[in-house]
Amino acid sequence: MSNAPQSPDPQRYQVIPRVLVFLTRGENVLLMRRAEDRPIFPGQYNGLGGHMEEGESVVTAARREVFEESGLTVEDLWLCAVVAIDVGESPGIQMHVFRGKAPEGDLKTSLEGTLEWVPQDGYQDLDLVEDIPILLPRVLAMQPGAAPLWGFYRYDEDGKLIAEFNKLA
Q1: Domains along the chain?
Q2: How far apart are CA 57 and CA 122, in angstroms?
């Protein structure tokens, strides 16, 4: 089969695939305080993740990002959400959100930011990326094998995030 039928039409709405991963160890969740010099979310707390690269599946991208940002090799990931993010123009973003149990091992340092194990009931007072207070409680409540959430983020005329979630049975 030729790949020609799969070629994107530049006139159609397109998305950039990203991954976001939340690892837990006991009652703690691993968060990264983004470095102040980072162009996206400087100084704010987020999960681990980034862009999917050519030739990767979303799971491969999630594992690679975790390794690059933490030094941990994680096999135990499950899909918790797929979120379409309308940024007001094309391309938009499609974010695949995973959760997993962190393997034993020391965390490595990264230019991306500082890693911290945060109590699952104690992250609310941190300077979080704007969607994390909405997304993280949902992800932490999910169990392996549960149906993923389907989300849609958009921004109102004042630039305020509006997040919607649906779950398919």
Answers
A1: 11-167 (3.90.79.10)
A2: 33
Alpha carbon 123 to its chain's center: 16
What radius of gyration do the chain's Cα atoms show? Answer: 16
- pLDDT grade, residue 114 (50/70/90)? very high
Task: Tell the residue number behind the tokens 């499950």, with chain if given.
Answer: 78
Give the global pTM.
0.92
- What's the pLDDT score for residue 1? 53
The residue among 95, 55, 56, 103 whose CA lies nearest residue 79 is 95
How far apart CA 85 and CA 14 sit, in angstroms, is 11
Q: Confirm if 17 and 94 have CB atoms less than 8 A apart.
A: yes
